[in-house]
Amino acid sequence: MIKKCLFPAAGYGTRFLPATKSMPKEMLPVVNKPLIQYGVEEAIEAGLSNMAIVTGRGKRAMEDHFDVSYELEHQIEGSDKELHLEGIRNIMESCTFSYTRQIEMKGLGHAILTGEPLIGDEAFAVVLADDLCLADEDDGDGDGVLAQMVKLYKQFRCSIVAVEEVPMEEVHKYGVIKGEMIRDDIFQVSEMVEKPATEDAPSNLAIIGRYILTPDIFDILRETTPGVGGEIQITDALMKQAKEGCVLGYKFKGKRFDCGSIAGFIDATNYCFKKFY
Ligand code: UTP
Question: Is 258 in the pocket of ligand 1 (CB under 6 A)?
Fold first, then answer.
């Protein structure tokens, strides 16, 4: 079964400059918790226990976050303040963390390939922590997005991308799929275009930052030539998988906030503040 979750987190986060000049985007807090921690919690909820993080220069804060801070912990020992560390301590007890660095930023596909030594020859999940996904108790059975996808993988045993309907004027920001509907929320992908112009988009079903990938993706990525923007695109590799076998697009239940953009980040902050604090 799926045990490993890869977090490509090496990007520069230029939309958040100057905040991200010396701090990773994934450490930006939505209220009081960094984005990467929301992602790790979602992965744990889905039953995954090995977190594999692809980092880059200037990203050491993530490694420190998932580690003991002796001085701080000694200082607040026995006080009410310790309660604030309960969540992160539980995380550290329930999973392992491994890290590798992407030396050059050559795109998401390249970042995923960089994670291969941490994953090996098994199916794995991918979380882009700047897409914050939250379960919605009014929609579905309360499972997080990754938990829903892991369940689906048990049934179909192929790569799965999470998709969401977006307004046509926003398709240019995403990878977009076209596919045959095999259940009201599942599509068998037949076409996939990275960041299409509105008039070229095959649908308004946009891929968001949650994937389940079968390990043959690594060999495909190795042979994938750079596409849009000179980057190795995961969509190009997935399209090859779709042609040779099967890739599913899954319309997940729950809420997604694009925390890679300032507007999405503010929406997420307001939503989480009202809901959790
Ligand atoms: P984005 O393009 O949204 O992230 O990549 P970015 O480049 O950090 O942000 P901007 O556009 O400059 O503001 C999507 C995800 O893929 C990771 C990013 O860290 C992010 O989680 N990524 C992207 C890598 O790890 N390596 C890359 O070379 C590119």
Answer: no
